[in-house]
Request: fold
Amino acid sequence: MISTSLARIAVGVAIERRKAKSAWADFLWRPVSVFAGEPTAKPWTPIGGEGEVKLFYAGDAVIELHRTETTNYRENLTSGSPTLWVNLRPTGSEPPYELLAVTADPAEGEAFTDAGSNLVEAVPMPPGISEIIGRFVAEHHLERPFVKRQRNR
Reply:
């Protein structure tokens, strides 16, 4: 697949497994953090936790930055709590999830929820990643005036 992104940020994702208090599920899973770079660890390597909570390195992804989405990135960065959205798809086997994507675009993050069975979670954006995105927005953002369409009657 050909990408139209102007910049790419390699990231890793940490996911938490917590013992469920339910008769229908043994564990609850959720992404808890994203960090810049690609570790040498293999996906699904345990990286910490204690008691009934375990942390795993879920794998690596790439945040793609597009010139046409700078308004969304800017709104995310100025929201007071910049966020990344992580999209995981259930595999039906072990490991239980496959990492599909990570995005800084709130509209794309919302669109991830359209596939009803996927696990989509918003996690805090690390300062290093927000600085890269901020520089991208500063370099590529163009104000586009709102133009109301006129209806033909």
Summary: Helices lie at 70-77, 106-112, 127-140. The longest strand covers residues 7-19. The mean pLDDT is 89. DSSP finds three helices and seven strands in the chain.
